[in-house]
Design brief:
Length: 625
């Protein structure tokens, strides 16, 4: 055993990214200039992209990914050329072939294009204060925004130019611009296509830290500022201590309209956030910590294909939990607690337990092919494989390594080494393992690595071995859950609301553990129907994390019908959020807990408000696709 493992791991996935039609491996992208001009009237973007390419393999053509793009013109070194837009392939779009002179080592390739109404990357909406457009390219939607090597294996520095009657933000640092309606951005750090982004709308900004502003439309700006201003700079400084200095200069963020399909998206210099985070109680700032952590994992150091997505998200959850734990320790210290560090670890463990529950749930319910850490995406759609697996199995793999290698103190130097070694690059899982050996072998820990069960962790579906958790904070919750279990099994006095002393996410753990337990018991719906009276605060919550869990509990076990208040108000709520994390399970809950017809009826009512990606996924979930 030993290093041979790296060679055998390499053979288990594709050498090149299977989710692109492009011939990216034959080129180096030296620089990219992307101009996008917004038309709110036609709901399209006019674009021009200019690539400075180094031809590494004497290729006689360059092939870019496109999807639903209207190609107008292509030039090589200033001369118009005869390009070919090939027929559309399943999932991956239409390859765009542009002839090159193979004897030229360097070429400037320019393409003029326009997006169409089939574009899956952008959504035009009526914002609160005017027309609004935003994009979302991860994982493989960048090809419907501009012709590109749409693979995370390719990185380029960019110059971005956005033209619009409304304010524009893109994935870089704003530059001075004198031309009217023209916004210029510079991204000197090489980034992959999925991090390219454009937003335009009536945006204002407010400071939330010395190197951070938050952007949103006017009506919610102050609330957004309040939500983040306490933590932002603190998060950055803590992350810098764990990894190394923040390299992107500013960390600004943008709170999007409600149809934004994700919780957050780590756009360089302009993290995008769902408005569901603005709950007025700072309970969801953890998402900001997550997106910030991507400044190292994902944005500096990137997975080389979506088969290795865990390298992006697993590492990010790992850093996020380290940040959250460190913040808790810091707060305990400020309160004069002697066990501050220990408390920080308790909080980190509490977050892990939540993650473990999500992992268990996903392994039980999700397509088995996609519960492996390293995925096989040949002919696959990354949107279909998307789940909590890369996040949580990725996290627990890293936590397993941390534990086996001797804990945080032994693992911390590796974090710095790894991120430094691969910054500005993309890597795969074999390179990750190889780097572990590089680092730990000289430290006499080769045997520890040899004893890791790589095969199971990386290539076998389902739950990995369960670690031991510090249960201090979870036990407070389990005690109350046990009271309920006892009541349901043996009767006696019905429990009251004993959750007053719970903090933050203990409420979430309480609701989801009750749901999990009730699945194994016979619960009388009449008992469930008393819950809204026992826990009125959950019914009144504005926090999506509570609303979704609370309604799952009630609707799964309460035998409510489609005209019960509980069901109608939950259905109404689904019409106000666009975050897939809530929308998708929400409709599945209506389908399984009420009826499929009702779920479809509600979906039809709100379909037009959802983002194209969200719409497609809910249709798949409801069997409408
Ligand atoms: N990069 C992801 C969002 C994403 C993943 C978009 C795949 C498209 C395809 C982002 O960093 C993320 O993980 N968001 C989470 C936040 C959570 C883990 C704190 C989300 O949206 O729920
Ligand atoms: Zn993430």
């Amino acid at each position: 055993m030993g290093r041979e493992i790296v060679e055998s791991i390499k053979k288990r996935f594709h050498e090149l990214d299977p989710c692109t039609n492009s011939n990216y491996s034959k080129f180096k992208v030296v620089n990219t200039e992307l101009t996008l001009s917004v038309s709110f009237k036609s709901k399209t973007l006019d674009g021009r992209v200019i690539y400075d390419l180094k031809n590494l393999a004497d290729a006689d053509k360059v092939i870019f990914d496109t999807s639903a793009l209207d190609i107008k013109e292509a030039k090589v070194n200033g001369k118009a050329v005869k390009y070919e837009l090939k027929p559309v392939t399943p999932i991956y779009g239409s390859p765009l072939h542009i002839p090159l002179d193979p004897s030229n080592k360097e070429s400037k390739v320019e393409i003029i294009f326009k997006t169409t109404d089939k574009c899956t990357a952008i959504q035009f909406i009526e914002g609160d204060t005017g027309p609004y457009v935003f994009s979302q390219c991860e994982a493989i939607h960048a090809r419907s925004l501009f012709p590109c090597f749409d693979t995370p294996a390719v990185k380029s520095p960019y110059k971005f130019i956005g033209i619009s009657p409304a304010v524009v933000t893109m994935s870089g640092r704003p530059q001075k611009s004198d031309a009217p309606n023209t916004y210029v951005f510079d991204q000197p750090i090489p980034i992959p296509s999925y991090l390219v982004s454009i937003t335009s709308g009536n945006l204002l900004k407010a400071p939330i830290g010395p190197r951070s502003d938050v952007y949103s439309e006017e009506p919610s700006l102050k609330k957004c500022q309040w939500e983040f201003e306490k933590d932002m700079e603190n998060f950055i400084q803590i992350a810098e201590k764990i990894v190394f200095d923040y390299e992107w200069s500013r960390f600004d963020s943008l709170v999007l309209p409600s149809s934004f399909p994700y919780g957050g998206m780590e756009i360089p210099n302009m993290t995008q956030l769902t408005p569901t985070l603005i709950s007025g109680d700072r309970t969801q700032v953890k998402v900001m910590a997550h997106e910030l952590a991507h400044s190292w994992s994902g944005n500096l150091v990137t997975n080389s294909s979506w088969e290795h997505f865990w390298l992006n998200e697993g590492w990010t959850v790992y850093l996020e939990r380290r940040i959250v734990g460190a913040i808790a320790a810091q707060e305990a210290q400020n309160e004069g607690r002697k066990d501050a560090e220990e408390y920080g670890e308790q909080v980190r463990n509490f977050n892990m337990i939540n993650g473990w529950n999500e992992l268990t749930d996903t392994c039980q319910t999700f397509d088995e092919r996609y519960t492996k850490l390293v995925l096989n995406l040949e002919n696959g759609d990354p949107d279909d494989s998307f789940s909590r697996i890369p996040y949580e199995k990725g996290f627990f793999f890293l936590f397993h390594l941390e534990t086996k290698l001797g804990g945080i103190k032994e693992f911390d130097p590796f974090i710095k080494y790894y991120f430094n070694k691969f910054k500005y690059q993309s890597l795969n899982t074999a390179q990750f393992v190889d780097t572990l050996y590089d680092f730990y072998e000289p430290k006499g820990k080769k045997e520890v690595l040899d004893n890791i069960d790589w095969e199971t962790w990386l290539f076998v579906s389902g739950l990995p071995e369960k670690p031991e958790f510090d249960l201090t904070l979870a036990n407070q919750v389990y005690k109350l859950v046990d009271k309920w279990v006892n009541y349901i099994e043996k009767g006696g006095e019905i429990p009251g609301d004993e959750t007053q002393h719970f903090e933050g996410e203990q409420h979430m753990l309480f609701l989801e553990t009750l749901t999990a337990k009730f699945k194994t018991l016979k619960v009388d719906p009449a008992t469930i129907k008393q819950f809204p009276k026992i826990y009125p605060k959950y019914g009144q919550s504005k926090n999506g994390e509570i609303i979704s869990r609370w309604n799952e509990l009630l609707i799964t076990f309460g035998q409510y019908t489609s005209d019960d208040e509980i069901v109608t108000s939950f259905a109404d709520w689904l019409g106000t959020v666009g975050r897939m994390k809530y929308v998708r399970p929400g409709y599945v809950l209506l389908k399984d807990g009420v009826s499929r017809d009702f779920a479809v009826e509600v979906f039809k009512k709100y379909e037009h408000t959802y983002h194209p990606i969200c719409k497609t996924m809910v249709k798949k979930d409801l069997g409408l696709a």
